[in-house]
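TL;DR need structure tokens for one chain.
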Amino acid sequence: MAETAFQKSSITIEAAERIIKAAENKAQEMGKPMSIAICDEDGTLKAFRRMDGAPLLSVQIAQDKAYTAISFGGMASHEWYDFIKNDGQRSSLFRGYGSGASWPGRSVA
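>> reply
TL;DR here they are.
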């Protein structure tokens, strides 16, 4: 009989909270209040923190960036340029969005 289910790994809340804390420490070290989002393997928000003083717009941007990273296999924002620079079709789908770009729908690089 064929299998009808499979096991998959997911980030624990404890691991997500450790990542949030490490990112918050780095943001404090840099003197930049930030919003920090962690998604699970399906792109569902697992943990979130908006530091005091973080801009309101950063709330959605952080969540969109986390969703985009997991949707593209963990690709970090700084890797996007090399990913799209020679692909006119992909790069034409991006439109300016602050210091990054947004993909129609949800993704942010």
